[in-house]
Amino acid sequence: MTTATPPLPPAHASGTPLRIGTRGSPLALAQAHETRLRLGMAHPHLAAPGAIEIVVIKTTGDRILDRTLAEAGGKGLFTKEIEDALLAGEIDLAVHSMKDVPTVLPQGLDITCLLPREDPRDAWFSRDGTTLLDLPAGAVVGTASLRRQAQVLARRPDLTVVPLRGNVQTRLRKLAEGEVDATLLAMAGLRRLDLADKVTAVLEAEMMLPAVAQGAIGIETRVADAVTNGLLAPLNCADTALRVTAERGVLTALDGSCRTPIAALARVVGEGVLELDAMALSPDGRTIVTTSRRFPASDALAAGLDAGAELKGRLPPGIFAVS
């Protein structure tokens, strides 16, 4: 007869700090600090100096800078080492950009809290203020996102898209130095870094449908850690959770990863009512399949899965094959 291993006790239960695991990029740290601030506002004892510790963990995605994430293996490259630390009890919670989180999580872990979502749209940057539609033929757009690449090429097949990796500041520096003529970044990250004033143009969803869960901060914990989960409960945003659930349903149905250009955006349009727009594309932007639906909040996951299944059924076979 075997007995179940008891769950690891939260370190803060014994008076030691509540430990937040995060990547070390400026944006990741800004998200961790936002989480710490919200925890302190919800629980005054956590606002005391030393009550919360931010633990920086370097991930595989941070180490790979010479190729796109699709080439390196897709989603999970920014979460694996942090999740390993969470499972080992070295941290109590992990703060992630939800667009980096795979749809299948390690056993025993879950996204137990979603902070209020920031602006989910994409931002356009060009050195001379030129818009996407006005760039000269042959201009170079830098992005590591297949989703952005596909949508750019769908509108402007005469442009050249090249990989551009690095954090927000690195990519803006490469733009300024003339490595590319234009690039795209998430508005949410720019707002969190107080860089929104540098944007050439904000791209509405009709022009560039965002990544699944873009702008949402997810907090991952051990399912059995009732103490930490209880502390996070007041921070959870119900509307964000519904929107992210629907969008990730699309991703789940399409078996999506960084190798697949998929976009989705859910909006709350009324009391208990959401709308969802979803899209799947070929990397070259030549094939585009879209769908939309309106649904009650209680059907968020089912609506996302249904939208993803519809897209999958309408896509040509092998469209996402990796050469």
From TrEMBL:
Residues covered by the Porphobilinogen deaminase N-terminal domain: 18-227
Pathway: Porphyrin-containing compound metabolism; protoporphyrin-IX biosynthesis; coproporphyrinogen-III from 5-aminolevulinate: step 2/4
Region (Disordered): 1-20
TM region positions: none
EC number(s) per entry: 2.5.1.61
Gene3D superfamilies xrefs: Periplasmic binding protein-like II, Porphobilinogen deaminase, C-terminal domain
A biological process term (GO) from this entry: protoporphyrinogen IX biosynthetic process
GO molecular-function term, one example from the UniProt record: hydroxymethylbilane synthase activity
Ranges of compositional bias, category Pro residues: 1-10
Residue numbers bearing the S-(dipyrrolylmethanemethyl)cysteine modification: 258
UniProt remark on cofactor binding: Binds 1 dipyrromethane group covalently.
Catalytic activity of the protein: 4 porphobilinogen + H2O = hydroxymethylbilane + 4 NH4(+)
Primary role: Tetrapolymerization of the monopyrrole PBG into the hydroxymethylbilane pre-uroporphyrinogen in several discrete steps.
Family stated for the protein in its record: Belongs to the HMBS family.
Name the record gives this protein: Porphobilinogen deaminase
